[in-house]
Amino acid sequence: MLLPTFAGLNVQVLGISVDHVSCLKAWAESLGGITYPLLSDFWPHGEVAKKYGVLRSEGYTERAIFIIDKTGIIRYIDIHDIDDQPSNEVLLDELRKIIPEAFKEKDVMKEEESLPQGGVVMYCTQWCPDCRRARVWLKEKNIPYTEVDITTNFKAARQVRSWGNGFQITPTFDINGTIILDFDEEKLSEILLK
Amino acid sequence: MKLKVGQHAPDFTLPSHLDKDLTMSDLRGKTVVMAFFPLAWTPV
């Protein structure tokens, strides 16, 4: 199992397979929830895997790791035995070479940080489209808010999952103690634009 | 086609098990570990 703790290094972990989304969901659930996104390369079947040169003729992908740096350049490729699990130690070593500065920073331990209280707090990710829409909406309405990236703050990720009854819904809002799941314009307006 | 170290990572958008689509290029500024795995119910 890949470490979600890479997130403390400002690293985003992605899992990718040719499975259908519903299959990935069931699987993640059976594992007690997976915090990083599992991407479904189901249709057009294996298209992304093909682009990365890891689609096998059997129709599923190699077991492979790509590390991509902040500018979008591939820095590490490892295609290993289909039965072998990727080693977190090896990955950490590679990451240490690519982003030495991150390993010096103390925020690897963000785990223990307390979560912001009061006002509008938006729990989100950098990539989720609804988070982006929510940012635009809040800005338009001139509403000040605090953003917490749940991919680098595990305490926040846990909190979001508990609010979402096990589902990691982004964005999730904590508005002075009132929790709103997802970018629900109606509910947000009700509370913020009264 | 095989990719090599030093090349740009091909961009893509895929649905995720977290109900949101993810676009690779939205992750600029972050280091990304992409882990391809053969099928669900196998170790990732």
Q: How would you sum up this structure, described in words?
A:
The complex is a heterodimer of chains A (194) and B (44). Chain A has helices at 21-30, 47-51, 88-98, 100-104, 129-140, 154-163, 185-192; strands spanning 11-17, 38-40, 63-68, 74-80, 120-124, 146-149, 172-175, 178-181. Chain A has 2 domains: 4-109, 3-Layer(aba) Sandwich (Glutaredoxin); 113-192, Glutaredoxin (3-Layer(aba) Sandwich), CATH 3.40.30. Chain A is globular and about 60 Å long. In chain A, the strands form 3 sheets. Chain A has a 4-stranded mixed β-sheet, with helices on both faces. Chain A has a two-stranded parallel ribbon with strand order 1-2. Chain A is α/β, with parallel strands linked by helices and 194 residues long. Chain A has 7 helices and 8 strands. The termini of chain A are far apart. Chain B is mainly β. Chain B has no helices and 3 strands. Chain B has a two-stranded antiparallel sheet. The chains are: A alpha/beta (194), B mainly beta (44). The interface between A and B is large, with 70 and 41 residues. Strand 3 (63-68) of chain A pairs antiparallel with strand 3 of chain B, so a sheet runs across the interface.
